[in-house]
Design goal:
- The chain is α+β, with helices and mostly antiparallel strands.
- The longest helix is centred in the last third of the chain and has 18 residues.
- It has a five-stranded antiparallel sheet, with helices on both faces.
- It is built from eight helices and 13 strands.
Length: 343
């Protein structure tokens, strides 16, 4: 087990290119594609297991994409990226109309040009709000950094207790990390998230999630569990835009998974398979890059979505939509506003 130390505000940020992505399969954590990168990439690359053997990386000095090594030391002192600019003159999008920006009751949102970090529109973007299953995006970044995709994890009664009504995963069933990532991100399976934290060491995993949030400048964020079931998981639209921007830049595998409609899980203990489907209505649709849904009663409906508009990545975060349909319709309204007012 490794220690996670307190992190300074300025930590390493490295840009990685050379990803190649190909189709694959899934839904609310959908599994559509796999990506490989050069050996210098800061995290384990999501590739289909060549065999059932593998082991988690739980020690040493490997650095994650936040520049923090597994022993808690900063890999460098390069400044962390800032995604809070509000001057739209720096955006890759040019304003061509003055249509009224959509307003939604009791919600917060942010619309951001991911290329330059410019905010095109926002409402209550700094208000703290329960994240629900948007939490799983941070969980996934740690999994990609510190696990092998071939690692096999057996579901225990303790893991299952977090959500005993789910049917995709079975007690005593054994699944690869690769399959569990799809379960966690597509139908937003809470047991899969719990399995990752338990296997890693629960307290260390939660410390790492909060340390990473601090390193990335997510000052209004606290993670209380790896799945988002607890209403004590809190963030803001602004902070979640920071998280989503990091995911876009350094974890394209997460977005590829979330953009696939269906995937087949395999229980290695029995050989049985189970089909899962994404609960994200945008999965597999033209222009959608990826994202994550979230719901608990205290949060109502949340949604993070990345789209490609005129060749450029656009991020929309919606928190507190009145129901499941509204999180998608409100996001669509904001997307349509950008398409109308910008080119």
């Amino acid at each position: 087990m490794f220690l996670v130390a307190a992190l300074a505000a300025s930590l390493a940020w490295t840009w990685y290119a050379g990803y190649r992505i190909w189709p694959f399969g899934a839904r609310d954590g959908s599994a559509a594609s796999i990506a490989t990168a050069s050996s210098t990439a800061p995290h384990i690359i999501l590739t289909a297991p060549a065999s059932s053997q593998g082991s988690a990386i739980t020690g040493g000095s490997q650095a994650g994409s936040d520049g923090v090594s597994l022993d808690g030391n900063a890999a460098s002192t390069s400044p962390a990226p800032y995604y809070g600019a509000t001057d739209t003159s720096g955006s890759v999008y040019t304003r061509i109309a003055t249509t009224s920006i959509p307003v939604f009751e009791r919600e917060s949102y942010v619309v951001r040009d991911v290329t330059n970090g410019v905010t095109l529109a926002s409402m209550n973007q700094n208000d703290r709000w329960p994240t629900a299953s948007l939490t799983k995006l941070m969980t996934a970044t740690l999994v990609l950094d510190h696990f092998s995709m071939n690692t096999e994890i057996t579901i225990t009664p303790k893991m299952m207790a977090i959500d005993p009504t789910q049917v995709a995963l079975q007690i005593d069933g054994t699944y690869t990390v690769y399959d569990l990532l799809h379960a966690m991100l597509m139908p937003s399976n809470n047991v899969a998230a719990e399995a990752f934290a338990d296997y890693y060491g629960y307290n260390s995993f939660m410390a790492a999630m909060n340390a990473r949030a601090a390193a990335w400048g997510m000052t209004n964020t606290h993670f209380d569990d790896p799945s988002g079931l607890s209403s004590a998981n809190e963030s803001s639209a602004h902070d979640l835009a920071i998280l989503a921007s990091h995911v876009y830049q350094n974890y394209p595998e997460i977005l590829a998974i979330s953009n696939t409609p269906t995937f087949t899980l395999t229980n290695l203990a029995t050989g049985q398979t189970h089909e899962i489907a994404s609960i994200n209505e945008f999965a597999g649709t033209p222009g959608f890059i990826g994202g994550k849904t979230g719901y608990i009663p205290e949060a109502r409906d949340n949604l993070i979505s990345l789209f490609r508009v005129d060749g450029h990545p656009l991020l929309i975060v919606v928190l507190g939509a009145k129901d499941t349909a509204a999180r998608f319709s409100d996001t669509t309204a904001l997307l349509d506003w950008v398409r109308t007012d910008y080119n």
